[in-house]
Amino acid sequence: MTGIVPAERGIGGTALADALPEFVVVVFAAVTHLADPWFLFAALAIAYWFAGDRLATAPRRAGAVAIAAVTCAYAAVALGKAWFAVPRPPGAMGLADVPAWLPVLLSGWYEAQVLSDGFGFPSGHATGAAAAYGALALLYDRVWTARRRLLTGGGVAVAVAASRVVIEVHYVVDVVAGLLVGGGVVVGVLWLAGDARFRGSGVDRAVGGLELDPTPAFLLAAAVSVAAAGVAAAGGHTGEVVEAGIGIATGVGGAIGWLLVDGDEPAVPVRIAVPALAVTGSLWVGAYVLADSLAVTLVATTAAVVAVVALPALPERLAGTL
Question: Can you give the residue ranges of every domain in the chain?
Answer without folding.
Answer: 20-321
